[in-house]
Design brief:
Rossmann fold, OB fold (Dihydrolipoamide Acetyltransferase, E2P), 2 domains, five-stranded antiparallel β-sheet, 15 strands
């Protein structure tokens, strides 16, 4: 797996909340680039410095409409970006469904839920290029269940189809983020698509079994536990 430097924006009028979230993120990934802004951020100017791969944390406090408006503006510029809402009020969750977002964190649960939110955000907006029959397709990583190497071909398993390419598995291992795991020299799985984990195999969201080789057992167990537990 290759580590990807995360670009993160935190928007809140509460200075203490921003600093606490920043420290929690750096405990997870010390290389993250983190920018802090108040709700009066000049979006038209500042958004030129970011892109659809930026992860936005937006704190929602009353009136919740302020944060929702900011999120809608960001989504207008970057439709596929990942927005994570944070609030100390569960009432805020009633207002978030009118805008694209990938996670809501109740602030008292921030430390426990942050890693899952970051993993989902990273998985949400990353795409890889797949060459097939002379055509290059950009596939969201969130659509990929697992990669399988079969003789000279790599098979990409999606929810509704498979794609075959002659690109080697190592290339995709280098392109995908920390939510993908090599559990066998011929298999690379999307951890967010795992339904069941057994010592010698995974059951994936499409019902297929992916083997875990003996040489990968210990590493697979460690990464799986770090990802989910």
């Amino acid at each position: 797996m290759r580590s990807v430097i995360m670009d993160i924006v935190i928007i809140s009028n509460d200075k203490k909340s921003k600093e606490i979230l920043k420290q929690h993120i750096l405990e997870i990934d010390s290389t993250a680039n983190i920018s802090l802004f108040n709700e009066n951020i000049d979006l038209k100017h500042e958004l030129t410095h970011f892109n659809k791969h930026t992860i936005f944390f937006i704190y929602l406090s009353e009136p919740f409409s302020n944060g929702i408006h900011i999120a809608k503006t960001i989504s207008h510029y970057f439709f596929e970006t990942s927005i994570i809402f944070v609030s100390s009020s569960l009432q805020a969750s009633r207002y978030i469904y009118d805008v694209n977002h990938c996670y809501f964190i109740y602030e008292p649960d921030l430390k426990d839920k942050l890693l899952a939110a970051l993993n989902k955000a990273a998985n949400n907006n990353q795409r890889i290029a797949i060459v097939n029959k002379g055509k290059t397709s950009l596939i969201p990583c969130s659509d990929i269940i697992f990669f399988e190497r079969d003789l000279r071909q790599t098979i990409i398993h999606l929810e509704d189809k498979t794609i075959k390419t002659y690109e080697n598995l190592k290339k995709y291992d280098e392109q995908t983020g920390p939510h993908f795991l090599e559990c066998h020299r011929s298999f690379l799985v999307n951890l967010s698509k795992v339904i069941e984990y057994h010592r010698t195999y995974f059951i994936m969201s499409n019902g297929l079994h992916v083997p875990i080789s003996r040489s990968h057992e210990k590493h697979t167990k460690t990464i799986f536990e770090q990802y989910f537990l």
